[in-house]
Specification:
Structural class: alpha/beta
Mean pLDDT: 74
Helix content: 25-40%
Low-confidence stretches: 1-32, 39-48, 77-105, 107-113, 119-147, 207-214
Number of strands: 12
Radius of gyration: 48 Å
Number of helices: 11
């Protein structure tokens, strides 16, 4: 069923109005006074069709504006607006004058609004009210109850805004004709309706999920406390391994957090290369610590371009921290050099196995023949065998997660026989000879350990990473 509507047309010229008088264009007449413009000539093309609901909303808005003006004039008192009655305040219509001090004829207090003129929910002019009720249950002042705030109906927003707009502009004159007053209210209503609809839509739409601090998996979700503890434990273990195993001449690339942890472990800042900012890549370093932040930054390029092999890894999954070897000339060139070096090490190990002054266990012989022993250890064995009889006890297992082909850099050795008084064959003599070597053949650590059988041995360790092509340079 279609809503009822009425057709409003602006009134035509008043009867008896002659051609002499105010000009239709609104310019000053001959008398010098500006007159209101006559819009009757545009009546045919400015016809407005309004529904009953639209007229009711507009009329309610106008009534609220007038009522507020009457409230304000009523609170000032009858003496504040001479020549105007309380019922006509703000409209420029003269009302009956009431002598000061005399009560009105209806028995109400001076400056108050008669009971039949008051709207429900509005306090009288003289009553103290901390907050005046608004349409829709809103309050102009006073605390708002806690809990989620829902947007008020757009009709309430419309009527309240029209009333406030009228209050703030009550000093301005409305258009001369009722037709333009209605048009002004409707235009404002349309704008407010559109703005209210957008505001309600935005208020009702769910907020986008907030981006949390970078998670290792890149899912945008914050890591669980257990994952945080696992990542911290892996970083701590990696820092301890680097401090104990990495050569003092090696440059290590790391994220700022890991670099701070390494520096706290005693590694000089000059040996660390923090990634990011002016150092977007690990080029120029020997090792890179692969944490979740580093993997997120480089992605697949970390293993395919910059660091193809792993020396040691700690932790699993997104919490893993790995120590990788940086390929200065690219991953492909490094892998070719690694295969060539492994073949040279296998050849040198096979030759050492033929030396009668070098005794090896079964596991040690397999490692020497397969080319798994570091080139620096092979060179040290050859030099020791010229002066001493040496037993190669064993090579400790490589670090967890090491890539295939990574050289064994640690060995346990012991004197093969007592020797002679002029050249004693003792652990101290072996250690003194190794400490006298020059870089890169001087070991990083030489310690005395006791084997499972109770026999003392000398543990010789070279720092990571192992140099490639060292045997071919001789």
């Amino acid at each position: 069923m279609q809503p009822q509507s009425r057709k409003l047309k602006p009134p035509g010229p008043a009867p008896g109005n002659s051609g002499v008088g105010p000009r239709a264009d609104g310019l000053p007449s001959r008398s010098g006074r500006r007159t209101a413009r006559d819009f009757s000539a545009d009546a045919a093309q400015d016809t407005v069709i309004l529904s009953v609901q639209d007229l009711a909303a507009a009329q309610q808005a106008v009534d609220l504006a007038r009522q507020d003006q009457e409230d304000e004039h009523g609170t000032r008192g009858a003496g504040d607006s001479p020549g105007h009655g309380a019922g006509s305040a703000g409209r420029g219509i003269p009302g009956p004058r009431t002598p000061p001090g005399d009560p009105p004829a209806d028995g109400t207090a001076p400056g108050s609004i008669p009971a039949d003129r008051q709207q429900p929910g509005r306090p009288a002019a003289g009553d103290p009210a901390p907050a005046r009720a608004e349409p829709g249950g809103l309050a102009r002042r006073g605390p708002v109850p806690g809990g989620p705030r829902r947007p008020p109906p757009w009709g309430t927003v419309l009527l309240t805004t029209v009333r406030l707009w009228a209050q703030r502009r009550r000093h301005l004159r409305w258009p001369a004709q009722a037709r333009w007053r209605v048009l002004s209210v409707l235009v404002l209503a349309a704008v407010l309706f559109a703005a209210g609809a957008i505001s309600i839509a935005l208020a009702g739409s769910p907020a986008p999920p907030a981006r949390t601090r970078a998670s290792p998996a890149g899912t945008g979700r914050a890591p669980a406390p257990a994952a945080i503890r696992a990542a911290a434990a892996a970083r701590t273990a990696a820092a301890g391994w680097i401090a104990a195993q990495v050569s003092g001449a090696a440059i290590v690339s790391c994220d700022p957090q890991m670099c701070a942890l390494l520096q706290a472990r005693g590694i000089p800042a000059a040996q660390l290369l923090p990634l990011g900012g002016s150092n977007p890549a690990p080029l120029g370093s020997d090792l890179i610590v692969s944490t979740a932040a580093v993997r997120s930054e480089f992605g697949a390029r970390l293993g395919s371009v910059y660091a193809p092999v792993v020396l040691a890894s700690f932790g699993t999954g997104s919490a893993q921290t790995a120590v990788r070897v940086v390929a200065a000339d690219g991953a492909a060139a490094y892998m070719r050099s690694l295969r060539t070096d492994m073949a040279a090490r296998a050849s040198a190990g096979s030759q050492l196995l033929q030396n009668p002054r070098l005794h090896s266990s079964a596991s040690a012989r397999r490692a020497l023949a397969a080319g798994q022993v570091d080139s620096r250890l092979l060179t040290a064995f050859a030099a020791l065998a010229t002066m001493h009889v040496v037993d190669v006890v064993d090579f400790p297992a490589p670090a967890t997660g090491a890539s295939a082909g990574m050289p064994l850099r640690i060995v346990d050795i012991a004197p093969g026989r007592p020797g002679t008084p002029r050249r004693p064959n003792t652990i101290g003599a072996l250690a003194s000879y190794l400490r006298a070597q020059l870089f890169p053949y001087r070991p990083a650590h030489i310690t005395v350990v006791r084997l499972a059988s109770g026999r003392p041995a000398l543990r010789v360790e070279y720092g990571a990473p192992s140099p490639l092509g060292l045997l071919g340079k001789g």
